[in-house]
Every structure is written in structure tokens, then in C-alpha cells.
Amino acid sequence: MTMLVILCVLLGLVDSKSLEKVLLNQKSRNADDCQIPDNITELIESLTEIKRNKSFLIPVQESIYEVCDRRKSEIPFVTPTNCPENVTSRRGGKLNQRSVCPWDMVQEYLPGYFPSVINVARCRLCERCSGVNSTTSCQPIVYRIPVLKLTGCVSGFYTYEKKYKKRAVGCTCARRKTMRARRRNRV
Fold first, then answer.
1. CATH classification code of 34-186
2. Which residue would you say has higher pLDDT here, 185 or 176?
């Protein structure tokens, strides 16, 4: 910025009065002076082709994970008592409850991002997929979710940059990774 100002003065593109105004404005401006831009809705809608998507997949449910997230602590170990033994006995209901790898939707708070709250899937702590052999386990399905990151303040308005956050959107049953498979993936 300073080099640009000096260059403009040398080339005569900016007079001294205008330059003084710009510099005083920049020095006095701080985060408290910034406002959310009028086009924030358009910016958010540009993140996805699905306009005005208020919820991702299913509604958020209060769970032990959400409470722990709010307290900024680790998720405590929970014995897998809420993992169903037989999938065929669960008819109807929501997909996340009927799955061989059930999950809950919780809210994740992202200060400095827009939207500042994202619904994220958390796989239940099942030892294995329900009704499936023991070589499988529940794994999160990860998706890149577009968000706007707050990057600064220009002319009294916050500026944002489009970023992607990898977040779980559901859970699926998959074979457990073996040591041999892990070594192959590193190469």
C-alpha cells in the first residue's frame, strides 16, 4: 500500500490533499468501523448452487458432542450402547438413524467465517457397523463445504475470501485400514 501511494504521488496521479485524506482515513479506521457488506446474501448464495440452503442433510440434534464442542473440551469416551444390533428392525425414521453407521448432526461454530455455524455429521461411537462383519468400521463421509473467510476491512466494509472447509456430512461402513494399506497410501 505504501509503495502504491508513493508511486501515485510521484506520477502526479494523487494531489497532496487527497493523499492526506486517504492516509488519515486508513489510520483512523479499525474493525469497529466495519460493517457487513450489503451484498452478503449474494456472496453466500455464490458459495453453492443450492440457493438459500439453510440446513445440510438433516436437522441438528442436541447431543453429547455439541455440549462438548461448546465447552471447547475433548469428546469423552462413550461406550457404544446406542449402536443398533440389527438394521432390518429399524424401518422408517431418518436416514441417519436407519444407517448401519448411525450419526448425529451437530453445530460447529466458526468465528471469522460466514456462515459462522455449519451442521456437521458425527459418527456414533460404534465398535463396528451394525449387522456387518467385524472387519468393518464406521467412517465419516467428508465433503468440502464452501465458506467465506473474513479477511479484513476496506472502505468501511468487511472483506471475505471464498475458502473450503472439509467437514463430515454423514457416515458409512468401510473396511478398516490395515498397516499394509497405510504404507501403500504414503508412497
1. 2.10.90.10
2. 176
